[in-house]
Specification:
Beta Polymerase, domain 2, 15 strands, Poly(a)-polymerase, middle domain, 5-stranded mixed sheet, 16 helices, 21% strand, alpha+beta, 43% helix, Alpha-Beta Plaits
Length: 458
């Protein structure tokens, strides 16, 4: 597709250099040759490097080691890790074991970040035994179709990265690289995709091979061309889909370099946090806990679930919540609450059953006759009412109490808090160097299109 001079200028800066391409090709070929020569193990490069759709500087390499499908899962993990370590030792790198559906190695070899992943070598995507088995089919599908659209894919990836909507991890809930490529192919270019996206609505279904076998409930459904039962856009949240729609509309109206410029994270000092809290007149609290030893795809949803459960507890206890957020760190994770007040009256009304509801009314009266409430039970509009004393009138006391462990926390979050405890901080004491960017993002939050439009007016 024809690009504007402005877009050609962007492409000149984000296309991988010939030296980059050759370097990645040389290292990957050496690893693949080593696997076959010394271990008789077939393997392949997958992902954006294999498809030629990686943005300059993204030097991540994914090498999948192919094992026979009759190999037991335990042996796949064991042999895959052993083979990965043999590669790292042979090439003089370093590695960390990680876990998706099964273990794999994340290695540093020369100057490249390389994932060494064992998978089953199955005949079709319908025969996969684990999620990673599907990835080689994605690569084989894209390669023969993307040739005329590589530049468009690069623009789309840079556009979504700069807009903060790139990445299908649980923290981002955005667009994967494969999803970007499928959308480019479907709409036949970057600008046609942008034009179409300005009119997207939740519930949109795109089926490149017209072979969907079931319905999908996600905001955007892009049926995997290699698997009619899978939605490639399953990780995309409604908010991130809407953020992309906003970005597309803003770009249509006024395309500028800002839409492709990845913004450096802003940091807040302790003083800036103090001033932000004072300006807003709110109360800021954090709960900090040891990070459970699991991957982000497991822990981040549990942190979000825990934040929602604690926010519900706070609301029921008389502390209205404005916003929450969470961050998974390597050693410690944080759940953040902004409250409209952090103290409340000791008195709270409990509404009981109607007087005419005999059994329930008798049980209600019996309960509160024995507990000596502040007032009641009395009758109001035909129902029993009782006024009782709250167990917590200060939010810090509630957040420090073991009442939190009775909330519907994520399993691993609760285990960490129960076994190791947790810390509560408020106001400027929520700040530390590790949270400086997290807190800045919380206070300066705006949608990506609005942020870019605001920058253009400054």
């Amino acid at each position: 597709m024809t690009k504007t001079p402005f877009e050609e200028e962007i492409l000149s800066r984000i296309r991988p250099t010939p030296e980059e391409i050759e370097h990645l090709r040389t290292i990957s070929e050496r690893i693949i040759a080593y696997l076959m020569e010394y271990h008789r193990r077939p393997s392949m490069v997958v992902g954006s490097v294999a498809r030629g759709t990686f943005v300059r500087g993204d030097r991540d390499l994914d090498i999948f080691m192919l094992f026979p499908p009759d190999l037991p899962r335990e042996d796949l993990a064991k042999e895959g890790i052993a083979l990965g370590r043999a590669i790292v030792d042979h090439f003089g790198g370093t590695a960390v074991e990680k876990y998706a559906e099964h273990p794999y190695l994340n290695a540093r070899i020369y100057d490249l970040d390389i994932d060494l992943v064992p998978c089953y070598h199955v005949a079709s995507a319908r025969e996969i035994k684990s999620a990673v088995d599907r990835t080689p089919f994605h690569t084989r599908y894209i390669i023969p179709r993307i040739a005329g659209y590589v530049d468009d894919a690069l623009l789309m990836k840079q556009f979504t990265k700069a807009g903060g909507v790139y990445g299908s991890d649980h923290m981002t809930e955005g667009f994967s690289g494969y999803l970007c490529e499928l959308l480019i192919l479907h709409y036949r270019g970057f600008n046609p995709l942008i034009r179409a996206a300005t009119g997207w609505r939740p519930g949109l279904v795109i089926d490149p091979e017209n072979h969907r076998t079931r319905s999908f409930n996600e905001p955007l459904a892009v049926v995997d061309p290699t698997d009619p039962n899978r939605n490639v856009a399953a990780a995309l949240s409604l908010d991130q889909m809407c953020a992309f729609i906003e970005l597309a509309r803003a770009y249509q109206e006024d395309p500028t370099e800002a839409f492709f410029t990845i913004r450096r994270p802003v940091s807040f000092t302790r003083k800036q946090v103090e001033l932000a809290v004072a300006e807003r007149g709110s109360a800021l609290y954090t709960i900090s806990l040891p990070t459970p030893p699991y991957v982000p795809d497991t822990i981040v949803p549990q942190l979000r679930k825990s934040a929602a459960a604690i926010a519900d507890l706070l609301e029921r206890s008389g502390f209205p919540v404005n916003r929450t957020d969470c961050r998974m760190g390597e050693d410690r994770s944080v759940i953040l609450f902004e409250l409209l007040n952090d103290t409340t009256s000791p008195i709270v009304r409990h509404i009981g059953p109607p007087v005419i509801n005999g059994d329930n009314a008798r049980r209600f009266i019996s309960k509160y006759i024995e507990t000596s409430p502040l007032s009641g039970p009395f009758i109001e509009d035909g129902r029993y009412i009782v006024e009782v004393r709250r167990p917590y009138t200060e939010v810090a006391t509630l957040l420090s109490s073991r009442a939190l462990l009775d909330a519907a926390l994520g399993k691993h979050v609760r285990k960490s808090m129960a076994e190791h405890g947790w810390d509560v901080a408020s106001g400027a004491d929520c700040w530390n160097e590790d949270l400086s960017e997290f807190l800045a993002a919380f206070f300066e939050r705006s949608s990506p299109g609005v942020r870019i439009m605001r920058m253009g007016r400054e």
